[in-house]
Structure formats: C-alpha cells, structure tokens
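YM 10:42: Ankyrin repeat domain-containing protein sequence, as discussed on the call
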Amino acid sequence: MHVKNDFGHRDGDRYATLEKLQLVLALESSSATKPIGASDGDGSASTDDAVISAGELHSCCCLLPCPPECTRNRTKSQADSSSSTNNLSALHAALLEAADRHADEQRAAIILVARIDDILRSGIDVNVTDERGETALSYVKILLRKGCFRLAHQIASQLLDHGALIDAEDNGQQTLLSHSVAALDGASDLTRLLLNRGADVWHRNATGGDSPFGSFLQAIVRCRCVTGATITADLLGRTMGSRPEAFKALVLRSMLRHGRFIRVLGPVFVQLKSILSPYWRQPQPLRYAAWTVIRRHSSPVKSWARELQQMGLPPSVLRYLTMED
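YM 10:58: structure's back
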C-alpha cells in the first residue's frame, strides 16, 4: 500500500482533505445497520445517512463524530427547549390557552370553566407549580392583563374552592391580590373575593417590596386619577382600617415614596386620602367598628358567605359584611 507523506493525503488520495475524513468517519459511525455504499435497490447509494450525519457533525463542537451519549444529551436538551408548555400542569396550560384566546366571551368562558372543573375533579394538586415556582392561581394575573376580569374572578373562585393557597407568590414575589388591586375597579369583584377569603392585605415579600396597597398606589400614579379606583380604594380601606394607625402610616409613607411629581400627583393624592382617611380617624363610626369586630372573629373560608346567609341576617347587613355594599 502506497502512502503519501504529504499532510492530508493517504492511500491514493482516498482522504484528500480533513473535511472528507470527518465526513467518512461520520458516515461509518452512523451506518451500523447499513454499510456505506449499500444500494437502495437501484444500484445507487443512499445519501440520507450522509446528510443526517453531516448535520449532526457540524452541530457538535468536536472534530470527530459525537459519541452516543453526547447525541442523546443534545437531543434531550432540544426536546426540552422546543416546547416549554410540556412541563406545565393541565391547569397552567388551560389558563395560558384562555389568555391566548382572550376567552372573556360568555361561551368560551363557560367552556373553559367547565374544563378547569374537570381538571380539578381529576385529583390534580391545585397548588402544583411550574418551573418558575408559580401556581395556577398566580396565572390568573395573565387574565387580568388581558382584561378578562370576569373570567379571572370565576377561575380564582374555582381554584380557591379546591384549596389554592391564596397568598402564593409569583416569580416577582407578588400575590394575586397585588395584581388584582393594580387593575383597579376593573377587577373589583376579584379583589373583593380575595379579601373575603382572607388574602393578606398587609403582605410584604421577602425582599421588602410593596404591599398590595403599594401596587394599588402605583396604578394610581400611572393613570394620575382616582376615577375608576374608588371601589378598590374602599375595599382596601375597610380591610386595612382594622389597624388604623398602621394603615395611616402606610398610606402616607407610600405617597411620599411614589409622589415624585407633587404638582401633578398632589391633587390626586388629596382625593385618595379623602377616601381612605375615614378608616383611620378616631373614633370610628359604630357601624364600621361592629363590622371590624365581626370580621375579626370570623374565619374567611370558602363557605363564609353561605354561613352568613344561614344566620338569617337582613340582606343589607349581609351585603355590608361581605363588602358588596
């Protein structure tokens, strides 16, 4: 056998270049069941192996063909990144689909609510988290961003009925209540639901960020008015007024923190303060004091409103206790 001494030329120019050597090695390693040059029945060699092997070869960082374990790892990573929704629970996926389709139409909402009910009845853990640690209840914020306020209220009620953790934080360390109050009066029904179910209105995350009231005030700053926010302000005032001194301090501190343009925001803050200040003034009205005592000694659970109805209270009293009036 004649071997040339020139670099890159061996055995009669069989391997004329390093690239050809790589290609041949790749073809030989990938054709365990089909030898190179085997015909497909018409005497011509198949080129499929060459194309696939060459593609695999150039996707690797090494010169020689990838070992089997390298190929398996690369295939696995590509599969994992190709569809992140494969790692989501059925609940998360259903909520994402609802947000993508803007499912606030009545028929679409009914279908989605029924679908989520079936998923919950199947025994799935309602507090299962995605790869970022968010529960399905946290995903309701996506519906809020899409303006699907009624649907957000319905689904949140479903999840809470099945034991969802009401103060679960999202990847931004915010609870659903923070997102709800930031949507102002558009999401007032959801805000009322969360507060009646015992959501922590004083919640502060581990990094010391804003409470739900801080999120509410930021939304006020963005729109520069209290129009469309009076219901939410009243809901927060009633709940936080049970601690009047702490409430007053939080409101004034938050206004100083966010009120950078006092000429623009000054009148807005004055209007907001006029709505909230009755809840920290002393002495408080007897009606509100009675409401505070009843709420403090009641357990905000999913059947709380039903239990109040069974007490035979007048409708006006019932609406006042549940903040519907």
